[in-house]
Amino acid sequence: MAGVSETNARTQILATQRNDDSFSTLWEELEWRGLIHVSTDATALSELIEGEPFAYYCGFDPTAPSLHLGHLVQLLLMRRLQLKGHKPLGLVGGSTGLIGDPRPTSERTLNSRETVAQWVDSLREQISRYLSFEGDNAARFVNNLDWTAPLSAIDFLREIGKHFRVGTMIKKDIVAKRLNSDEGISYTEFSYQILQGLDFLELYRQYDCKLQSGGSDQWGNLTSGTELIRKAEGGTAHAIGTPLITNSDGTKFGKSEGNAIWLNPEMCSPYTFYQFWLNQADADVADRLRVFTFLSREEIADYERQVAEEPFKRAAQKRLALEVTTLVHGAEATQGAIDASEALFGRGDLTALDELTLAGAIEALPQAPGAAGAAIAQLMVDTELVKSLGEARRAIAQGGVYVNNVAVTSEDQALTADDLLHGKFAVLRRGKKTLAGITA
């Protein structure tokens, strides 16, 4: 659980967040920020958002011990709606997490009930960092295991299953792809869209929940809920599908693709997280600022100008990395990541870095094992800073090799015990920018 100081820091971050009042409606701002990829009736949604407070939800399945970058998009959308006065429901899928939504390529590995229960607790703690649980529109947690566990198979088929048509279900993109693959799809994963539809129906009944958000790749599951509410209750509900965050070749960031940017610092260190944002391409950075920060339209326009006129300063990337890393990991960890970044490249004191921060920085570098007495030239080969011992010796002779930012003066120089920071780590550098880590 978060300590008192961390809770206070989170409260302070939430207190600084604002929607941009230069927009006539929140819907207009959400569209400008690129947070709306697809939705039900846009006019009706804009009117709903500008009207009286209502409940809305997003679901987070515990299919891993941490949330990732895609989930952060949802949390920021939820926060913007909460700032407008509406009431967020954070659903952690204690039942759907036991199944998992269909993946594009293969069947999921089913996790044990005990593991899923642990991950439910972990995700609840993470979600609580991004929403306010105080005031008239305080956020609330719900768990779909509460209404699915008591439901018998017969009741599920009679009361819920009767509203779904198989022809419609198999036309959903993800299901159609799996049906046409060699792997096929099990009934377990095929039924996921019914369970997600049931979630929306139950929240509609219990809390008068009128909106669900999710990634645009979940659109079929989102609309299964709006259709179920229409058929079972004769009611109207809405859905928003946010854009997927992709890398430069169009690949989605996520756990299924093996390139997830996790929000848990034990799975993605604050240093690695900070560097991810710092390394955003000039063509992408303005879009990232719109989606992932609370900077105003005017501020973002100024950073767009700076990217166009002075791209070498990377001012937009630095602000993006500062804002998002502070949001996720807090100001202290962010400053540690900045200090590590400066120190690694010779602009700061490596010995001043605490062990956790230095470990996170080393983790992001090419690495090799080493110990006191190991020849630095050989370590350069082991870490692939050079291809051969001859190349290593030439680089040392030319004065371009450093251990912990101290120049290596002899081709035969060896690592010493004093070189091992915290008794564990050393940083090799060739030239100004090529780095590697040594771990004892």
TrEMBL record:
Lineage: superkingdom: Bacteria
Domain RNA-binding S4 intervals: 374-436
Residue intervals passing through the bilayer: none
'KMSKS' region (motif): residue ranges: 252-256
Catalytic function, reaction form: tRNA(Tyr) + L-tyrosine + ATP = L-tyrosyl-tRNA(Tyr) + AMP + diphosphate + H(+)
Keyword Nucleotide-binding found: yes
Keyword annotations from UniProtKB, A to Z: Aminoacyl-tRNA synthetase, ATP-binding, Cytoplasm, Ligase, Nucleotide-binding, Protein biosynthesis, RNA-binding
Any Pfam family the entry gives: tRNA-synt_1b
Location in the cell: Cytoplasm
Binding site for ATP: 255
An example Gene Ontology molecular-function term: tyrosine-tRNA ligase activity
Motif range ('HIGH' region): 62-71
Binding of L-tyrosine, residues: 57, 192, 196
EC number: 6.1.1.1
Subunit architecture: Homodimer.
Family statement drawn from the similarity comment of this UniProt entry: Belongs to the class-I aminoacyl-tRNA synthetase family. TyrS type 1 subfamily.
Protein name: Tyrosine--tRNA ligase
